[in-house]
Amino acid sequence: MKENKTDNKTALNAPNEDAVINIDFIKKNVEILDDKLSKIRRRLDPDKINQRIEEIDKISAGENFFSNQSLSASVLKEKAYLENRLNPFMAVYEEFSNLKELAGLAIQENDLGLLAEIEQNLKTLEKTVLRLEIELTLSGKDDKLNAIVEIHAGSGGTESMDFASMLLRMYLRWADKKKFPVNIMEFNAGDEAGVKSVTFIVSGLYAFGYLKSETGVHRLVRISPFDANKRRHTSFASVFVYPEIEDTSEIIIDEKDLRIDTYRSSGAGGQHVNTTDSAVRITHLPTGVVVACQNERSQYKNKDTAMKILRARLYDYYKKQKEEEENKLQSDKKEISWGSQIRSYTLNPNRVIKDHRTGVTVYDTESVFDGNIDEFINGYLISRIS
């Protein structure tokens, strides 16, 4: 008699005779989710959060707690923030623990109907855990803020300027999909095509938290449409992302440290171009930080917007400087060199886009340039979970 071999795949007779339960899939996914939730738990530290919530409860129970409305509001806001971080995780953790125990029993008893249900629940839970991972990484002080994005074409002439414009379109399409409004503050058009540099603000919840992952050097390899001999070219563009700082109390700017220049606005075809010297360029002399704005109709408004960008740039400058002093390490937003690419966009000979920090690779290059970059963003954010 011929012996049948088993491979941990069990046919399910009801409700679909062709349905197959993959026990190995269930075991593997339980193991993966267990590992992910353990990492989240270590980073979140529920015991520490619960301890702080208990402290707040004791403080708020005091007789004179509400006599200082500003202080009481701040304390209660902290409690709400802590609960909003802790409760979703605890709910998912409890659901997974129950599912893990149930899966063990179902496998032991070969309960096909229950195994089918568990398999579907694991797939749903996997998406929930991914969302938790992303939310956990967006807990920084500045992550909720709007993002100020700068793109600069690298060496390579028209080819690099065209690449910079491709990146600009990519981010504009991404923002549009997120329904995040965008305001272009400064646009320096290329001599023949593309853009030399551009600064724009993306407004929306967690705009900076998401886009901070884009800071770095981006590299394009393709057959240049500007080369009559159809040779392959490599070009670069750098991207810098800063949080738009609303509270200026941390950044004090002395007027005597500024050099303010005015010039005539310029823009791409079809854009409004002022005929007066209304564009403003501000140089912060102690740090050498330079910002500009030309999109507003008046010099006053351009200066006001340029100062807003300058505050964000200086906030980032001093923050990174402090991190370097404390950690004695190079900051995340290091000085960009052409040998430190974060992502390569290869359109010839193969079509592939790869993030060198995370290994995330996408072959649908058109989709990426059309703004579908969440896979890269999520990959970077998740990689930050220790």
From TrEMBL:
Alphabetized, the UniProt keywords read: Cytoplasm, Methylation, Protein biosynthesis
Q: Which SMART domains match?
A: PCRF
> Which sequence positions carry the modification called N5-methylglutamine?
271
PROSITE patterns xref list = RF_PROK_I
Question: Can you give the residue ranges of the Prokaryotic-type class I peptide chain release factors domain?
Answer: 264-280
Listed SUPFAM superfamilies? Release factor (SSF75620)
Gene Ontology CC entries for this record:
cytoplasm
| A Pfam family assignment | RF-1
Where is it located? Cytoplasm
Q: Which domain of life is it from?
A: Bacteria
Mind listing the GO molecular function terms for this protein?
A: translation release factor activity, codon specific
* PTM text: Methylated by PrmC. Methylation increases the termination efficiency of RF2.
* The family this protein is said to belong to: Belongs to the prokaryotic/mitochondrial release factor family.
NCBIfam families attached here? prfB
Role noted for this protein: Peptide chain release factor 2 directs the termination of translation in response to the peptide chain termination codons UGA and UAA.
Name this polypeptide is given? Peptide chain release factor 2
Naturally occurring in which organism (per UniProt): Acididesulfobacter guangdongensis
Instruction: Output the lineage of the source organism.
Output: Bacteria, Deltaproteobacteria, Candidatus Acidulodesulfobacterales, Candidatus Acididesulfobacter
Q: Which gene encodes it?
A: prfB
